[in-house]
Every structure is written in C-alpha cells, then in structure tokens.
Amino acid sequence: MGETVPDDRSRRPVRLDLAPADHERLERCARERDLSMASYARQAVLVAIRGDERELSGRPSPALPGSNHA
After folding, report:
1. Distance (Å, whole) CA 15 – CA 58
2. Which of 54, 10, 55 is nearest to 64 (CA)?
3. What gap in Å lies between CA 14 and CA 25, rounded to an integer?
4. Which one, 18, 41, 57, 63, has the greatest CB density within 10 A?
5. Is 13 a member of any domain?
6. Would you call 27 helix, strand, or coil by DSSP?
7. No. of H helices and E strands in the chain?
8. Which pLDDT does position 69 carry in this prediction?
C-alpha cells in the first residue's frame, strides 16, 4: 500500500470509531489514492485541523506538504 509512518516514539495513536458506511467510504477513498486507511485518515484529519485553525485565527494557513489545499 501507500505511505507508512516511521516508527517514531514522538507520535501518539488516536482511535477512530466509524459507522460501517463511513468505514467503507474511508476504505474506498484510501484505496483510490493507493494509501492505507490510516494514512488517508491522518491526512484528512490534518487538513480539517488546518482549516479549523485558519477559520479560528482569521488567517490563511500553509498547505500540507504534497497537498493541493491552501
């Protein structure tokens, strides 16, 4: 599959519980981008966090590396 995260002890796991339909959507989107579901979910969460930060601060936030999002 796609990208993997290096074994870096500075990272902390997060549990994500999804309804079956949402799990299927995640699986489909990740597969279409040749990513693991964890990698796709991580990217989606970081994009959402940056959008929230931008909205809360009133300032544009930098794009994620390798992303088309501003």
Report:
1. 30
2. 54
3. 19
4. 41
5. no
6. helix
7. 2, 0
8. 52
